[in-house]
Amino acid sequence: MTSFQMSAKEDMVEKFLDAAARGDLTQVSSLLSLVPSLINQTGYSGWTALMLAARNGHLHVAEKLVSLGCDKSSVNSSSQTALDIAKFWGHRHIAGLLSQSEGSCRRILPGGDLSLQENYFGRETLDRLSGRRTDEVWLETKQKDLATVYLLFSNLSPMVSTPQEDSEGGDIKLCRFRYEAVKDLLQKPSTVLIFLGMEKMKSSSSSSSQTEEPPVWFAISTDEDAAELLRRCRENTCLFPKTPNRDLLKLSEEEAGVVAQARSVLAWHSRYSFCSTCGSSTHLEEAGYKRSCLNPECRSQRGVHNTCYPRVDPVVIMLVIHPDGNQCLLGRKKVFPAGMFSCLAGFVEPGEAIEEAVRREVEEESGVKVGPVQYVSCQPWPMPSNLMIGCLAVAVTTDIKVDEKEIEEARWFPRQQVIDSLFRGASPAFFVPPRQTIAHQLIKHWVGMNSNL
Amino acid sequence: MTSFQMSAKEDMVEKFLDAAARGDLTQVSSLLSLVPSLINQTGYSGWTALMLAARNGHLHVAEKLVSLGCDKSSVNSSSQTALDIAKFWGHRHIAGLLSQSEGSCRRILPGGDLSLQENYFGRETLDRLSGRRTDEVWLETKQKDLATVYLLFSNLSPMVSTPQEDSEGGDIKLCRFRYEAVKDLLQKPSTVLIFLGMEKMKSSSSSSSQTEEPPVWFAISTDEDAAELLRRCRENTCLFPKTPNRDLLKLSEEEAGVVAQARSVLAWHSRYSFCSTCGSSTHLEEAGYKRSCLNPECRSQRGVHNTCYPRVDPVVIMLVIHPDGNQCLLGRKKVFPAGMFSCLAGFVEPGEAIEEAVRREVEEESGVKVGPVQYVSCQPWPMPSNLMIGCLAVAVTTDIKVDEKEIEEARWFPRQQVIDSLFRGASPAFFVPPRQTIAHQLIKHWVGMNSNL
């Protein structure tokens, strides 16, 4: 090829990729009919047209590319497939398309791939880079890096700003600080500093050079006066939410995932600053992921002990289905808003399997006996550090007898009533928890399972 | 009917049920051809012939009864179906038969019912009766009950006896004590007493009256000299196993489940006797399931805090499958016996979903990137209190780069090599962990998935 031809080809590839990234189906189609070999061409960092369409949520372009037989398995320079990208950016319709056509995965996992289901608090936008937690030199350099992002926590609440006209995504946004704005706090002995990780992937439209490392994130917890901390922001739309159970559900999916990690680890530090084995003080290690006893005689110094590592509490949460398949069991606690019913739930006990915990909790709380149990999906719930393990369960008895210490009322609800509540707006007499909860997602999963919703 | 006819019918029902319980297929068949209505007759406590066959593992009798259309859904006076009974007693072939024919369950859970998979340490023979943990009067009465069973622990090891000629099941058996034999230990302030629960179901052949409550079980942990404790047994075949990771795998399935619960809770008491929030001493409450801080000013006294409850650490353990579907990734740690390879595994971190933990751990340990993840089954692992969450995962990259801090070697193993190792006996060059581990069961699940093994 002459240099003119090369340049013309490069131009065309660029035009084609740009059209895919913008979702311009007409241009994508006409360029492909002109030059079919464009379909698998790559641009910056090895991104294909399919990846760009997947990144930006352009389903029709993705469908067109797949229907024309594009290579779905190729990976970019970060080893991500288009499916990875669609999942990462939360474009489930595209992820569904790409995994449907992933015949090999279906063959390998005959039970079906549920791992596409992603719940609020579950998205990982940061690579935790746990190997770096003991690399003090690297961490110190990163702390001072101009691109590094700091989140500020007070009483386990992150500083957030309330919505602006042009804001995208969630109703509230995390306040992000640079090193200069927080370096005084880092000097204070009472400050807890947690390394959260490195951004997994930059936006495909990034203009920065390929060699630059993505920014890393830290969380800072400080006992400084909250009003003082808020003065660090120029806008007066900032605050520390007071009711995490409700307010932290207003973040974007991306930020919710970061908060889940940061808040759980910080809650552990706030509750576990003394050695549970001997009562001595402990000190923070490994960038916030370990606390070691300061007493050299302590048993916890010999070998590896879970006392030194963050605690995660597994909880089972289950939608119990009536033997007739057309009703589900929901209960309500006294503290729920009037009219709200949810799935039953409870902590997994020591020495107990998930399925057994489901059977025990359902019988304890409602008197209903459960047979088959099926895992559906899970959700990290940072209040303070639960792992909600979501299951469907089929009842083998139907009489309800509630344990009034646990729940106020439990009832079988017909499928149609649940569907109405989910899709036609909640009635004050009966509604379920919001979409950010795994309870909501389990209920939605069930009503969608045997119908065409 | 005359009284003679009634008695003749009762005799025949009894004969029929007895034949089913003994597994006498010839007699079951001939009685049924004589009096077909016998098929759903019930005897003691509402047990049917199918339940008795399921209880005692008589597959051929169960098949005959099912093929003749017996009622599979009827329940005994403890609300158990024949399927419940088969699962409870570990007769998986019968449980498989009964759940295969349970069309309704399959319809309700279209993904298939994996909850039949039961792993070692996962069987629950005791009803934990958590509501009784705060009932001190009831607990005290039960402590002195002649039928109550006590297990003795020293340094987190249960006292066991080594095999006798006529022993059934495991290679070692728990030593069971009555109140009289341990009442001196119960008086000691250093003794930790845990309520384990009530036996779920008595053997169907029991001759005791229906009104009698089944025995309850307690675990005692004491700091008395182990040699002294062993003198409480008449036989000199008793001991406290020294290597729990290995020795506790020699119990029967029933006893392993009890030990999983007892050891996890006792390990928590041994490591968490001080308040992690303020460093003060704590005291045991709720029959061993809570520890409260003795300092009235402590924050942990206000509201509910996880610091007061036993810790359970969720761990992901996964078999990673090659994109070609015919190889799996296994790794080995330096401490493994030479030639042993196993699934990769790691703790779930705060704010992390199960599927994300699988992807992170596999990439950290082996450098392999993982796409779809599927939950298979789980296993309580009381060393000291892990919940092993077993998954299959499909790799999207295949290059291996091990993290040498974590594992020594990782390799793709062809399916046939794994099958040979599982079913034709281990070779010293390559073998997998024993059947009691969930790693073994995941591997077996995979090799059986796409073949007729």
Automatic annotation (TrEMBL), chains A, B:
Gene3D superfamilies documented for this protein: 3.90.79.20, Ankyrin repeat-containing domain, Nucleoside Triphosphate Pyrophosphohydrolase
Catalytic activity from the UniProt record: NADH + H2O = reduced beta-nicotinamide D-ribonucleotide + AMP + 2 H(+); a 5'-end NAD(+)-phospho-ribonucleoside in mRNA + H2O = a 5'-end phospho-adenosine-phospho-ribonucleoside in mRNA + beta-nicotinamide D-ribonucleotide + 2 H(+); NAD(+) + H2O = beta-nicotinamide D-ribonucleotide + AMP + 2 H(+); NADPH + H2O = reduced beta-nicotinamide D-ribonucleotide + adenosine 2',5'-bisphosphate + 2 H(+)
Any GO CC annotation of this UniProt entry: peroxisome
Subcellular location: Cytoplasmic granule; Peroxisome
Pfam families: Ank_2 (PF12796), NUDIX (PF00293), NUDIX-like (PF09296), Zn_ribbon_NUD (PF09297)
Residues in ANK repeats: 45-77
Chain ranges of the Nudix hydrolase domain: 310-436
Main location: cytoplasm
The protein's role, per its UniProt record: mRNA decapping enzyme that specifically removes the nicotinamide adenine dinucleotide (NAD) cap from a subset of mRNAs by hydrolyzing the diphosphate linkage to produce nicotinamide mononucleotide (NMN) and 5' monophosphate mRNA. The NAD-cap is present at the 5'-end of some RNAs; in contrast to the canonical N7 methylguanosine (m7G) cap, the NAD cap promotes mRNA decay. Preferentially acts on NAD-capped transcripts in response to nutrient stress. Also acts on free nicotinamide adenine dinucleotide molecules: hydrolyzes NAD(H) into NMN(H) and AMP, and NADPH into NMNH and 2',5'-ADP.
Quaternary structure note: Homodimer. Homodimerization is essential for its catalytic activity and protein stability. Interacts (via ANK repeats) with BLMH.
NCBIfam families: PRK00241.1
Cited PANTHER family: NAD-CAPPED RNA HYDROLASE NUDT12, NUDIX HYDROLASE, NUDC SUBFAMILY
Protein name in the entry: NAD-capped RNA hydrolase NUDT12
